[in-house]
Amino acid sequence: MGIGKWVAGGIGIAALGAAAVYAQYRDTEEPDFTVVKEDRAFQLRDYPTIVVAEVTHSGSRRQASGASFRRLAAYIFAQDRPEGGEEIAMTSPVIQDRVQRDEKIAMTAPVIQEETDTDEWRMRFVMPAKYTLETLPPAPEDITLTEVPARRMASVRFNGYARRAEIDLMERELTNWIAAQELVPVGGFEYAFYDAPMVPGPMRRNEVMIEVASD
User: Fold this and answer.
1) CA–CA gap between residue 48 and residue 137 (Å, rounded)
2) H-assigned helices in the chain
3) How far apart are CA 158 and CA 202, in angstroms?
4) Which of 41, 121, 143, 163 is the most exposed place for a label (fewest CB within 10 A)?
5) pTM of the model
6) Residue 63 confidence (pLDDT)
7) Is the pLDDT of residue 162 over 80?
């Protein structure tokens, strides 16, 4: 099974309702980055420092994803702030990765290995560029506001619902591409999801990403 199956980009989709949903979300703010190299569905990107809100939950990736998304959404939409305040605009992508046992949680985004009931998964919402750590509304104790330092990321883009088999395939494809480019990976895989849940699978944009050494 090759990568071509997953990069069709929704070819042949004719449903007007699906197109309307897609149009609603295509203008959502995304982090700025510079494309260093592009090769089919692969990109090598330089990201500047970004500010994120992050939370960690245990369980399978999908279980943790639902709990984390609801928790972060409650923060940005001012649903659990005693002082209330302005809502924070939703951005994309939503980034998820698996917490490494010896990891110091200071980096972001996207770590696919065997999932167990004791896995810990971190989800990050990228904050709009207008905010700094000083200007963001205070977060509840279980949500961390932090800066992700500038870094170089290798990514592969694919469509679909990002099921386990799809993610496994994309990890292998990205690993092979990184090796072919003679890049050195740093850390684990991260998963980036760009669309709202109601967007049909063939129109969804997903990415597997991993930091690589910049030199």
Assistant:
1) 22
2) 16-25, 61-76, 164-180
3) 9
4) 163
5) 0.80
6) 86
7) yes
Are the CB atoms for 209 and 42 separated by under 8 Å? Answer: no
Task: Give 92's DSSP letter.
Answer: S
Closest CA to 95 of 194, 205, 26: 194
Residue 28 has pLDDT above 50, yes or no: yes
What's the rounded Cα separation, in Å, for the pair 154 and 80? 36
Bridge-based pairing of strands 94-98 and 185-193 is antiparallel
Which domains occur in the chain, in start order?
Answer: 1-215 (3.20.80.10)
State the Rg of the chain over Cα: 17
Between 52 and 2, the higher pLDDT residue: 52
CB 170 within 8 A of CB 18: no
Mean pLDDT of 170-180: 98
pLDDT confidence of residue 101: 53
State the average pLDDT for the chain: 82
Which residues does 25 contact at the CB level (< 8 Å), separation at least 6? 92, 194, 195, 196, 199
Cα–Cα dist 185/25, whole Å: 31
The one-letter code for the residue type at 44 is L
- Here the tokens at position 144 are 């961390």
DSSP string, 144-203: EEEEEPPEEEEEEEE-S---HHHHHHHHHHHHHHHHHTT--EEEEEEEEE-S-TTS-GGG
Q: From CA 158, how far away is CA 173, in angstroms rounded? A: 11
